[in-house]
Specification:
This protein has 338 residues and is α+β, with helices and mostly antiparallel strands. It folds into two domains: 119 residues, Rossmann fold, CATH 3.40.50.2300; 209 residues, no CATH class. Helices cover 26% and strands 27% of the residues. It is built from nine helices and 20 strands. The strands form four sheets. It has an eight-stranded antiparallel sheet, with helices on one face. Strands 2-1-3-4-8 form a five-stranded parallel sheet, with helices on both faces. A five-stranded antiparallel sheet has the order 7-9-15-16-17. Helix 4 links the parallel strand 3 and strand 4. Helix 1 packs across helix 2 and helix 1 crosses helix 5. The longest helix has 16 residues. It is globular and about 50 Å long. The C terminus is likely disordered.
């Protein structure tokens, strides 16, 4: 296997040692695809560092999936289910698949890295995830203590939704316990709103999964938890094509999330964008992987910059700035707020 450059190896070592705490003898599966040679290099860096920990490492390459949430081939699903640790640097997300849920239920520690790039790895995966975890847990605690939420933005987002007891996830980047699952890069607190409770208007003005950075905002109207795309731009039509291919349930409001990673920027890759400190993202489609009831094979996140978020009437985000802490890392980077 060809040599891996030192910076990439260091970031991969941080993931192996601190984020996943890989131990000798564990079965570690790295699932990737042939969409991007750079992702193959990332997968090989994980392989090399996991092997250095004396793990039993398997690198499996599959064909790219058509969309996020599409199931992997059966042999890949079986491999995931029989592993102690799974890393998924892929083109499309495997997070919201039955294969991932089964592997998690069987105890695998899983890191999902859809659309990850080498630049993103170097920027975000050498981070101090203990610090990111602390802020993420504080935000998750605020969300967990509330039932009703309101999201606003200067471009016109006016959205109300309810949690109604749904579990709030804290994507801390520390996936060291049996069954742990999350993204890398990490840094968000999130939950699946109760189906049928979301109403109002969403204006995505940052990026959207599988579309990248938006040249102009996309407006959606939401009634009783179901979105309708109002904008007519090419990006809006493409989003509608992605969703319509999977039927009415694909328009379900699936997630509300708040970014907590001070190193993440809005780069056009939603994996990183939704982690950018001070951003809010709303997802459409599948929420079964986070405690909901909609199990459609697509999950697409859209980013709202400089959002204001109220939790049971209390201000949590003020135009993109977290107000729960006065610590330096509670302010978004200039790139996130641009």
């Amino acid at each position: 296997m060809k040599s891996i450059d030192a910076a990439l190896a260091q970031a991969a070592r941080n993931v192996v040692e601190h984020c996943l705490s890989i131990r000798p003898g564990e079965v570690v599966s790295i699932v990737t695809d042939s969409a991007d040679p750079g992702r193959i290099e990332i997968a090989r860096a994980f392989w090399q560092e996991a092997r250095a920990k004396e793990a039993e490492v398997i690198l499996a390459e599959m064909l790219p999936r058509k969309n996020s949430g599409e199931e992997p081939p059966a042999p890949i699903a079986q491999l995931m289910a029989e592993s102690n640790v799974v890393l998924c640097p892929t083109a499309k997300s495997l997070s919201h698949t039955q294969a991932r849920r089964i592997a998690s239920a069987r105890g695998a520690r899983i890191a999902s890295l859809p659309t990850v790039t080498k630049e993103m790895v170097l920027r975000c995966l050498a981070a101090d995830y203990a610090s990111i975890a602390g802020l993420t847990k504080r935000v998750a605690a605020k969300l967990s203590g509330a039932s009703k939420f309101k999201v606003e933005s200067e471009l016109g987002t006016r959205l109300e939704l309810e949690r109604q007891g749904r579990t709030v996830g804290a994507d801390t980047g520390l996936l060291t316990q049996r069954g742990d699952f999350g993204n890398l890069p990490a840094g968000e607190a999130f939950f699946a709103p109760m189906e049928g409770t979301t109403n109002g208007k969403i204006v995505f003005d940052g990026s959207v999964a599988d579309l990248g950075i938006l040249r102009e905002p996309i407006e959606l109207q939401v009634e009783c938890g179901v979105a309708r795309i109002v904008s007519t731009s090419e990006a809006a039509r493409e989003l509608d094509r992605y969703l319509s291919a999977h039927g009415p349930e694909a328009y379900n409001i699936a997630e509300l999330g708040v970014g907590t990673n001070n190193l993440a920027i809005v780069s056009g890759c939603i994996l990183e964008d939704e982690k950018a400190l001070g951003t809010v993202h709303i997802a459409l489609g599948n929420n079964a992987g986070m405690g909901g009831t909609v199990n459609v094979p697509i999950h697409l996140d859209g980013l709202i910059r400089n959002a204001t978020l109220y939790v049971d009437g209390e201000l949590l985000l003020d135009k993109g700035t977290l107000v729960i802490s006065s610590e330096p890392d509670s302010r978004p980077s200039p790139e996130a707020r641009a």
